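Before surveying the methods themselves, it helps to consider a single example record, giving the amino acid sequence and backbone structure tokens:
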Amino acid sequence: MSSAKRSDVEGREDGPSTVDNREQACQASLPPVRVLYVIDTLEVGGAERSLLQLCEHVDRARVEIIVCSIYPGDALRDDFERLGIRVIQLNLPGKYRFLRAIGRLRHVIRRVRPDLVHTTLFRADQIGRIAARLVGVPVMSSFVNIPYDRARTECNPHVKLWKLRALQICDRLTARLATSFHAVSATVRKINCRDLHIPLESVAVVHRGRDTEKKIVGDPNALRQELGVARDAPLILNVGRLVDQKGQRYLIEAMPRVLQHYPDAVLLIAGDGVLRDELVSLANSQHVAEQVRFLGHRHDTDVLLKSANCFAFPSLYEGMPGSVVEAMVAECPIVATDIAVVRELITDRETGLLAGVKESLPLAEGIIRMLSDRELSASVARQARDRVCREFDIRRIALQMEELYWQQGAQTRNGGAVNKAVNHLAIQEK
């Protein structure tokens, strides 16, 4: 991040205290905190994309991030390396192989000599916590979802409860090895603290951010033409994996009602997953197959959002919905399910419209209202963008993560060098 941009972001906060100034002066005199970021794979997913954006905007004079993935999958490796980020891939076969993975990661930690190990996602959490503590390095784990909450088991009939409880016990036991925790939302913090028996005060909340200043490459009107959508047709967009959690079935069931009011409306669903065939069949049975298009994975969701008249988000549960943040950035009017984590982003009738969970009719009515009331849609979209720029810009999030890394990593380096230096300055000032 450039110094001008960083100064602008910092200027939005209240002025730093004298202690903050001392800490910043001491940090400037020390080498950057070295963080070994351990994650399951480098495939395209919410956690992986968020890590990529963090690496792009973190101040490398303060924090050096080295990325280590445990299992095969390297779709994003080139993107990390283009940023100059060192990537280590263990490429272990199989789904778990924890003992072998712990041994391999232990060697990596000894070789890299990080000040802090940061883990994200279940398998990386278990492996990283144990390996880091065996070497004697502090470890911070991120909570990015709510894997043990009832909402997950209620919406996914394929979850085996006995297996989920076994994983929860494992997670709860290894959580005791972590020296600190980070959560991507207040909702995720609250639920994971309950399910893993962790004190709330030990978990710092830093939301996922997005680049609010990124320039869109692509023409929304040309994209409509490419997709066969008329320039003036109401366009509804959903972005997400085709799985039970994302609730696309309720959105498809809402379409007959929407089409009564807007016969030329089109629903685009960008994403893929195990429910694709089932959702295609549902669209056929609802007689909306012509108006519902399944796009598969897309790399131009920013252009899609600019093309759309409404972003529909029918998820049943989430950790921190990055697609909602992206819709806010694009100033696309949002209709979303009324779940706790969405309420951290969307205030009903101020920054979007909220509808009941697993309810197609309220979802349809919200979409119809957003399409018909242009004054409302423009107002909520504008306020949503204002809020995301103010609170969720990636530059602000990167600053918050830098501070967290310094708190958890640098203060344990060299016997607490930062604290000692700050105390020394305080004594000199006296």
Notes: Residues 10-19, 416-430 have pLDDT under 50 and may be disordered. The domain at 220-391 is CATH 3.40.50.2000 (Rossmann fold).
